[in-house]
Model the fold of this input.
Amino acid sequence: MRRFELVAKTMCFGATIETQKVKRKMQNHNFRLKNKLKTFEFWVVVFTFSFLLLNFMGCATIPKRETLPTYKIGGITYIPLISLCDLRNIEYQYDTFSRTASLSKGAHKIDLMVGQRLVLVDGSSRTLRYPVDIYQGAVVVPYQFRQKILDPLFKESLSPSQADLHLLEIQKVVIDPGHGGTDPGAIGRTGLKEKDINLDIAKRLSSLLKSDGIKVVMTRSTDIFIPLARRVDIANNSGADLFISIHTNANRVRSLRGFEVYYLTPDMINDARWAMEAVENISLNFDKSCFASQSPIVKAILWDMIHTYSRAQSIGLARAICQTIGQNLNTKILGIKGANFQVLKGASMPAILIEVGFLSNNDEERMLKNSYYRQQVTEAIAVGIDSYAQAERPLMEAARR
Done:
């Protein structure tokens, strides 16, 4: 009997211990569950607060969606150009006679023509998949125009100075050494030939620009003759940003000396006639498929847009080079001048002709014979090109505001 009671007590004691263990496990489990619930509640509060704070203050990384009306024309989505310009604070002008629209903001300008797929962006041609159109009396552009042209040009995530620096970066330059082959150009008293001076300075300039990461196209790199029209074709087909023709001067008045730069300036009274001649006689390197009409008048208007832009940029480039030459060399600066040089006609980018000195002047012929002096001239021209790329931005921006 006692043995039975002892066994029963032992079993009861064991059961009590097991019960206590189970209780402790339950307590521990409940404790951990409460902690997890508290942690979950804490993060819910944090995320809720963060969400409300971002909505209240505005999140800088999420741009506001632009609300623009859209229209379907032939199954293609179009947007009104003037509404797009209003949203981006872009100046908008439209000429009903020529049916051309002009957009400008800061240092940038875009030209479009109703019925055409060709768009001029800072003087360079771009081709849209679909043409600019008119809908309910307003100019409309395909949605692609905003994505491919407007957004990259006026990207809101970049500051204006950063965007200008990127878009005005000079990537390719055409260097044209004047004369060559059977055409020696000017010849000095000692027999120094212009074609040799031009080619030497052009090669030196090419090396300097390439060392700065700029691509260079030479119209000639040896002593050969290249027709003037072919030089322009090389420039237009290269997709270059600048065209620089290197020459050496001469004059019957042997006392004349100095450095000067020319840009193309046709007779302003005959600008319309000149534009028509350009279309008829000059390779514009336009994709024919981008024209809804093959009318020469339409092409002449587009060509005149390109030339007007390029002429302003050519003057800025000429000014910058003359300034750096005057600052770095002991030579007379004759300045920048407009002329109707054949080699500059038809260039679809800013184009200048540099006269580095007079072979007819004894002192300048002697200096141009010196390779060290030619290197100094070349380096000053390269610095001028760089100055143009930087200093021209605020000048253009001020002019367009």
Remarks:
- Residues 1-62 form one domain.
